[in-house]
Amino acid sequence: MVNLPGRVKMVEVGPRDGLQNEQREIAVATRIELIDRLADSGLPVVEAGSFVSPKWVPQMAASGEVFKGIERRSGTVYSALTPNLKGYERAIEASADEVAVFAAASESFAQKNTNCSIDESLARFRPLLERALEEGVPVRGYVSCVLGCPYEGDIDPARVAQVSAALLEMGCFEISLGDTIGVGTPAAARRMIDQVAAKVPVEKLAVHFHDTYGQALANIYAALQAGVGVVDSAVAGLGGCPYAPGASGNVASEDVLYMLNGLGITTGVDLKRLVEAGNFISGALGRPSNSRVARAMTN
Question: Residue 114, SS3?
Answer without folding.
Answer: helix
